[in-house]
Amino acid sequence: MVKDFNAAVSVSPVEGLHPCSQWMHPPRGCVKVNVDAAFCNTTRIATLGVVARNEKSEVCYSAVTKSAKTDTPLLAKIKAILFGVQLAKEMNIQKIQLESDCLMAIKEITKKQQSFCEWSSLLFDILDLSTEFESW
């Protein structure tokens, strides 16, 4: 069953964006940006986290922020991905691998058709920022 799961999630139409089950080093010259989010249903506040590491597992940078007006755990995960991409851009990283543990968020970002959901503008922002990287 684990083998089937790994085969199902190992290929992504957006190169560099991978669902994760175990952390692996990025290729030489690339920074792996791991993102995650925690969501509080009563306050509708999400806490977003980012850790970026190089091929030697050295932390390049990390950050945490809060995001209000977050209605669902999926929205929190998508906001975390956007936060990670924005930070990589601010840190002038040219080659990134973005990693999230939320397969639903990855599927939303990588599907070919336009999304008309509450988070479609965030998806557009993520995809728009992705074009500014040498490798994604």
State the secondary-structure class.
alpha/beta
Query: What is the radius of gyration computed over CA atoms, rounded to a whole number of angstroms?
Result: 14 Å
The number of strands is 5
How does the major sheet shape up? 5 strands, mixed
Distinct helical segment count: 4
Percentage of residues in strands? 25-35%
Coarse morphology: globular
Poorly predicted sequence stretches spanning 5 or more consecutive residues: 1-14
Helix content: 25-40%
Q: What is the terminal separation in angstroms?
A: 29 Å
Mean pLDDT, rounded to whole units? 84
The ordered H/E elements are HEEEEHEHH
Instruction: Output the strand order for the largest sheet.
Output: 1-5-2-3-4
Topology summary:
Layout: H1 2-9, E1 17-19, E2 31-40, E3 45-53, E4 59-67, H2 73-90, E5 96-100, H3 103-110, H4 120-130
Parallel strand pairs: 1-5, 2-5
Antiparallel strand pairs: 2-3, 3-4
What does this 3D model show about the protein?
This protein has about 140 residues and is α/β, with parallel strands linked by helices. It has helices spanning about 1-10, 75-90, 105-110, 120-130, and strands at about 15-20, 30-40, 45-55, 60-65, 95-100. It has a 5-stranded mixed β-sheet with strand order 1-5-2-3-4, covered by helices on one side. Strand 2 (about 30-40) and strand 3 form a beta hairpin. Helix 2 (about 75-90) runs parallel beside helix 4. The protein is globular. The N and C termini lie far apart (about 30 Å).
Short description:
The chain is an alpha/beta fold and 136 residues long.
List keywords for this structure.
136 residues, alpha/beta, 5-stranded mixed β-sheet, 4 helices, 5 strands, 33% helix, 26% strand, globular
